[in-house]
Fold this sequence. Notes:
76% of the residues lie in helices and 0% in strands.
Amino acid sequence: xxxxxxxxxxxxxxxxxxxxxxxxxxxxxxxxxxxxxxxxxxxxxxxxxxxxxxxxxxxxxxxxxxxxxxxxxxxxxxxxxxxxxxxxxxxxxxxxxxxxxxxxxxxxxxxxxxxxxxxxxxxxxxxxxxxxxxxxxxxxxxxxxxxxxxxxxxxxxxxxxxxxxxxxxxxxxxxxxxxxxxxxxxxxxxxxxxxxxxxxxxxxxxxxxxxxxxxxxxxxxxxxxxxxxxxxxxxxxxxxxxxxxxxxxxxxxxxxxxxxxxxxxxxxxxxxxxxxxxxxxxxxxxxxxxxxxxxxxxxxxxxxxxxxxxxxxxxxxxxxxxxxxxxxxxxxxxxxxxxxxxxxxxxxxxxxxxxxxxxxxxxxxxxxxxxxxxxxxxxxxxxxxxxxxxxxxxxxxxxxxxxxxxxxxxxxxxxxxxxxxxxxxxxxxxx
Length: 431
């Protein structure tokens, strides 16, 4: 692979432009990924499907992570970051445009799987690229800032969706600009499908952008390498690895199970309009998750990560209980607050996992990323339980089990190296 440094790029491929592009990728991933929650009430109404059938759509999206994460690691090592980025955005463009042009239930399943595969590939490609372009000494700060951008996009995506629906529900002679164009392209009975034209346009623009730019060569460290099949077999024999994999499955299931079913729950039990109050609740779920990340960064410098995880898990269970069983005025506030307490779970579980295994961190990271399939399994199980029992509230009780698994990590985790705490000695961290 030939050197692809941008003209004027400092030594070793550093480039503020590339760092900005990586932040853009984080924004787009979040913008496309976290719209499924607000869409579910419209999917149920528009396609006349059961809760289980509606849950198959996020299942199709997130199962792609389980299928693609490890193969994408091998692909990026063979073909490079630029090729994988372009291919991933091309897949997202095709998936989004396919559903926008031919909106139907079967097409939606196919489309979401293709988009999910693209997003999984993007996740694999961008972190090493961020390390090289931004510099190793700035990687921790840039990673935290990327998560902040991710949260902002998660907040904005439902708001854009709500604005589109509001515009398309207005009389045709009052529309203008983008709304008028989308009104011509989208069936009048499925105005919510218009968001996929937006996704297709954004993804296509990213294809053009990454074809035009030249990216630095990424020399992967051992902990970023996809590894060999023998390494995966060795890790697969470890009970600790499987325990952390289960915890990741449970966490992503908590996150997506709450976000996906929040709006249908508020509509069914409290009469909340999914295009306004429901979309706002999902947006604030992701917004509060961002705020929780900022607080969590401080707390993890002051306390052992297992204690922080334990307290935040209890907070998530408490706000979930208030959301499921409280009156309307409490539920609309409590359910979004679950996102605040879920905020530190992913980075804490991943760091505990990596610090609990002495070697093969690259393959381990691939295995953990495959656990994102929890976002496919748990929402589907919630929908199935809801249909079987006739109660969405009963289905969402499954979240007590998944949050319980996350809480249990704080009790059984025994990392080889603990997180650095202000005032602690290096010997204490390795105790």
